[in-house]
Specification:
Elements: H1 2-23, H2 25-48, H3 51-84, H4 86-104, H5 108-141, H6 143-163
Helix pairs in contact: 3-6, 4-5
Length: 165
């Protein structure tokens, strides 16, 4: 029985020490910060459940999906153009036409028409070059893959909010 009383006294003493520590200013301040953080988190979660916010997230998700679809279509179009050789054929055609026009440029009757044709061909050549630069830039910067990441994150956020209702 003496052992039991000693054990009860030690347990009670430990409990009193813990209660004293809980009453200390540092622990109270930490507990207050935890309480404030919890309240803020709860307010944020409640705000995320509001219909207007859910609608905005849904709109972001839809926009992201549209961007992803457009990116995929753009990549596929460029890939197909490269595979079919359309870009290279256009470049070769421009060179051939340019060579032919250069041979006629000595004739005064064709001079004005030749200059217009040359300007048109230069514009087409610039377009082809710009398309190539866009492809190279996209590969270097990963813009299309970043868009895909944004879409996945937006979809995941929407699913989390929708499932918490």
């Amino acid at each position: 029985m003496g052992e039991k009383l000693k054990e009860i006294r030690e347990t009670t003493s430990d409990a009193v020490s813990i209660i004293r520590e809980l009453g200390s200013p540092g622990v109270q301040e930490s507990l207050n910060k935890i309480l404030e953080t919890t309240k803020a988190a709860k307010e944020i979660v409640e705000a995320l459940k509001e219909p207007g916010f859910v609608k905005n997230i849904e709109n972001l998700r839809l926009t992201s999906e549209s961007i992803q679809d457009a990116s995929v279509k753009f990549e596929n179009t460029i890939r197909e153009m490269k595979q079919t050789g359309v870009i290279e054929q256009a470049r070769e055609s421009m060179r051939s036409v340019n060579d032919v026009l250069n041979s006629f440029s000595t004739n005064e009757d064709f001079a004005e028409g030749t200059e217009l044709m040359k300007a048109t061909l230069m514009a087409i050549r610039d377009l082809v070059d710009e398309l190539k630069l866009v492809i190279i830039s996209s590969k270097k910067t990963g813009i299309l893959s970043k868009a895909e990441g944004v879409i996945k994150e937006s979809s995941e956020m929407y699913r989390n909010i929708a499932s918490s209702k």
